[in-house]
Design goal:
Layout (H helix, E strand, L loop, with lengths): L1 H9 L4 H12 L1 E4 L12 E6 L5 H11 L2 E7 L3 H10 L4 E2 L3 H5 L6 E4 L6 H10 L3 E5 L6 H14 L3 E4 L1 H4 L2 H11 L6 E9 L22 H4 L2 H17 L4 E9 L12 E8 L2 E8 L13 E6 L2 E6 L12 E5 L4 E5 L7 H11 L7 H17 L1 E2 L5
Parallel strand pairs: 1-15, 2-3, 2-5, 3-4, 5-6, 6-7, 8-11, 9-16
Antiparallel strand pairs: 8-12, 9-10, 10-11, 12-13, 13-14, 14-15
Helix pairs in contact: 1-2, 3-12, 6-7, 11-13
Length: 386
C-alpha cells in the first residue's frame, strides 16, 4: 500500500483522488462470460399487426433469436410502415389486420399498435388460433382484461406482454438468477426508478421523432402508471415472488405539459404483496445531458444483502448499461452483465411449440397488467404549484 501511495502522490493526486484510486483498486469487479452462440431449437412463423410504438423492433428481435420467421406485417402509420419496409425487406406487407390475423400459417401475432387497441387485436388473434405477444401496456382497462382472461380460458392460447425492462435487460435477467440462488436472502422490497425521455435521439424506444397524437391521450396510452408502470410492477411481482398484491397508494401529475392537459409526466405508487413490498417512481423528465433515454434503476432489498442495477448507463462514469452491484455479508461486488443471457425469445418460441409457460408465467403477466390498471384508477391527481 505504501508503494502504491507513493506512486500516486508522485503523479500529483490529491488526498481525495488518492482515496478514490485506492478504493477503485481494491474493488471487486466481475464480468459475465460471453454467451456461446446457440442455434434456435424451434421454428415458428409470425406476423405483426400494428407498429405504432418502436418497441416492435425489439419484440421482433427477441422472437427471431428464438427461431421465429417474420412473414407479414400490417401498420396504420405511413412513416412507421416506410421504416419497417426498409428494415425488413422481402417481408410481405398485408392490406388489413385480418390478412395477418386470419393467416393459418402463422403461430404467433405480435403488436405494438395504439395501446388501448392491443387487447382487442390479441383477442381476435387468439380466437383465430394464434398466440399473441403485446408491447406494454398489453391491456389498459379492466373490461379488456376480463375479455382477455375469458378468451384465454376458451381458446387455450397464450397472451404474453413483453415487459422488456426485465425480460430484455441482461442485468435484470442476471439479478433474477442471483435472487433465485439466495444471494441476498429473502426479498423484502423492490424500488424502481424509471425516468423516460419524450424526444430521444434514435433507437427503438419510441421517441426518435415527435410523439404521435395518441401518446398524449390518457385513454389511448393508458396513463403513466398503466403504461410505464406495468414494466415496474412486473419486476416487483417477479423479484418478490408475490402472487397477490394491492396498490397501497398512487399519485399522478402533469407538471410541464399544459398543452396536453390529459397527459401525465410524473407518477409514483406503493405496492404491498403477499411476499414483499414495492415502490415505483415514473417520469418524463430525462434531460439531454444524460446521453440516453432514461437512467433506469432497480434496487432489491433482501434480508442478507441488496442488489442495485443501473440498467442503461452508469451516470457520469460510463455510458455502458447492464451494471449490477451486489452487497452481501462478505463483500461488495460490481458485475458487468453486458454479456449476459437474454432467454425470453428462445423460451417463448419453445412455449408456443410445447404449450408451456417458461418464458413468462401467464397468471403473473396478467396480474401485472391488472395492478397497473388499478394503480391508474386509484391514483390521486396532484398539482405542484409554481
Amino acid at each position: 500500500m505504501k508503494k502504491r501511495r507513493e506512486i500516486l502522490e508522485a503523479v500529483g493526486l490529491g488526498s481525495a483522488a488518492l482515496m478514490a484510486a485506492v478504493t477503485q483498486a481494491n474493488a471487486q469487479t466481475e464480468s459475465l462470460a460471453p454467451q456461446p452462440p446457440q442455434a434456435p431449437q424451434h421454428h415458428i412463423r409470425f406476423g405483426v399487426c400494428g407498429m405504432s410504438h418502436d418497441h416492435i423492433h425489439g419484440m421482433i428481435g427477441a422472437i427471431v433469436r428464438g427461431g421465429g420467421e417474420l412473414v407479414s406485417y400490417w401498420g396504420a402509420e405511413p412513416d412507421k410502415l416506410a421504416v419497417f419496409a426498409k428494415r425488413y425487406p422481402g417481408v410481405k406487407q398485408a392490406r388489413s389486420q385480418d390478412e395477418v390475423l386470419q393467416d393459418s400459417s402463422l403461430q404467433l401475432v405480435m403488436s405494438s399498435h395504439i395501446a388501448n387497441e392491443r387487447a382487442g387485436i390479441g383477442v381476435r388473434a387468439m380466437k383465430a388460433g394464434k398466440d399473441f405477444l403485446a408491447d406494454k401496456p398489453g391491456i389498459t382497462t379492466m373490461n379488456d382484461l376480463a375479455l382477455v382472461r375469458k378468451t384465454i380460458a376458451e381458446t387455450g392460447r397464450i397472451y404474453a406482454i413483453l415487459y422488456s425492462e426485465r425480460l430484455e435487460v441482461r442485468a435484470a435477467v442476471h439479478a433474477g438468477e442471483l435472487i433465485k440462488q439466495g444471494a441476498i436472502g429473502k426479498v423484502i422490497q423492490t424500488i424502481n426508478l424509471a425516468p423516460h425521455q419524450i424526444i430521444q435521439r434514435g433507437g427503438d424506444n419510441g421517441g426518435g421523432s415527435q410523439r404521435p397524437g395518441w401518446f398524449w391521450e390518457n385513454a389511448q396510452y393508458g396513463g403513466i402508471l398503466c403504461d410505464i408502470g406495468s414494466h415496474q410492477i412486473d419486476q416487483f411481482l417477479f423479484y418478490t415472488g408475490s402472487t397477490k398484491a394491492d396498490i397501497v397508494a398512487a399519485q399522478i401529475a402533469n407538471v410541464r405539459h399544459p398543452d396536453h392537459p390529459r397527459f401525465e409526466d410524473f407518477g409514483d405508487m406503493m405496492l404491498q404483496g403477499d411476499k414483499g413490498l414495492g415502490y415505483v417512481r415514473l417520469d418524463w423528465f430525462t434531460p439531454n445531458g444524460l446521453g440516453t433515454w432514461g437512467d433506469g434503476r432497480l434496487f432489491v432489498l433482501g434480508t442478507d444483502g441488496y442488489i442495485e442495477i443501473r440498467k442503461y448507463t452508469n451516470v457520469a462514469v460510463s455510458k455502458q448499461g447492464n451494471n449490477l452491484f451486489l452487497v452481501d455479508g462478505r463483500r461488495a461486488r460490481f458485475i458487468d452483465c453486458s454479456n449476459g443471457a437474454l432467454p425470453f425469445g428462445p423460451q417463448f418460441v419453445a412455449d408456443i411449440v410445447r404449450r408451456t409457460h417458461v418464458a413468462q408465467d401467464q397468471t403473473q403477466c396478467l396480474l401485472a397488467a391488472e395492478l397497473a390498471i388499478r394503480a391508474q384508477e386509484k391514483a390521486v391527481r396532484v398539482t405542484i404549484e409554481g
